[in-house]
Design a protein that fits this description.
By secondary structure, the protein is of the alpha/beta class. It has a five-stranded mixed β-sheet with strand order 3-2-1-4-5, sandwiched between helices.
Length: 140
């Protein structure tokens, strides 16, 4: 089952895709936020083109586990996204994934031309991989 991971920010949405078997997540693209309707359309187009059967959204909880202001924004955007797709959506705690993605990208890419946008797609892949790993453990 192919899954889509989303790291939803105010300026960009990091997007990751799993392989068709739902085992490995990889960074896919970054959607530069322009307009909520266009952003949702970009996501639903990917869902349709890549035959996605599950969407996993990173939820940026506060360190104490409570909903942050950004988490509330993510939930509101996701609610609107759900109005445009029949694909099931799940939230996944994404605390520290952006930091981890930045560190991972620094170890892989030593060039000064690193872009924040790539971190967003990598963060989405980390969130999605965590979900996939947990899903496969529960099946074992």
């Amino acid at each position: 089952m192919r899954s889509l991971g989303l790291d939803i920010g105010d300026r960009r949405i990091g997007v990751a895709l799993s392989d068709p078997e739902g085992i490995l997540a990889s960074p896919f693209t970054v959607i530069n936020r322009r307009d909520e309707i266009l952003d949702i359309k970009a996501i639903t187009d990917i869902v349709s083109q890549k035959q996605v059967e599950q969407i996993v959204v990173g939820l940026p909880l506060s360190m104490d586990g409570s909903l942050s202001r950004q988490a509330e924004k993510v939930k509101e955007f996701t609610r609107k996204l759900c109005e445009h797709t029949q694909v099931p959506v799940e939230y996944r705690d994404e605390r520290l994934t952006t930091v981890l993605a930045e560190r991972l990208m620094q170890t892989v890419d030593t060039k000064k031309t690193r872009k924040k946008a790539r971190h967003d797609a990598q963060a989405a892949a980390l969130v999605l991989q965590s979900y996939l790993d947990e899903s496969h453990q529960s099946l074992a």
